[in-house]
Amino acid sequence: MKTLLTCTVNGEEQSVLADTRDTLLDLLRDRLGLTGTKEGCGNGNCGTCTVLMDGAPVNACLVLALEAPGRAIVTIEGLTAGELHPLQQALVQHAGTQCGFCTPGIVLSAKALLDENPRPSEVQIRHAIAGNLCRCTGYGKIVEAIAAVAAARE
Predict the structure, then answer these.
(1) Which option is the CATH number for 86-152: 1.10.10.10, 1.10.150.120, 3.90.226.10, 3.40.50.970?
(2) What is the pLDDT of residues 53-62, one digit of tens each?
């Protein structure tokens, strides 16, 4: 059964026809063409599909599309207008990316942390990205990059 959903994605109101079984990930990738949100495990264990819903990080593979109306969704595409976000720049500068598959989810998890806590400790940074699996970097450089963005805000 198809339902017309209206929600705000990356600051723009979107009306999309979605199946009642669709996830937010399906809505973003398949209906809206926002492919920066990746599907990793499909069961909420890897964080690859992390987006912000009303400012909080959520696994888009676990959220039903039917939960999106009235919510503000931010994907990696909505983070900036044409240039890299400071978190993305810091990840590049600190060699915190390799394959890049996990990067959108990590960036959005880190953004949510810094929005809530502009000066997090290393432990708080590690806790905030604990739900984002990265098989390439070993996390040290990712944590350094997030800490550098926090320090630059002082």
Answers:
(1) 1.10.150.120
(2) 999 999 999 9
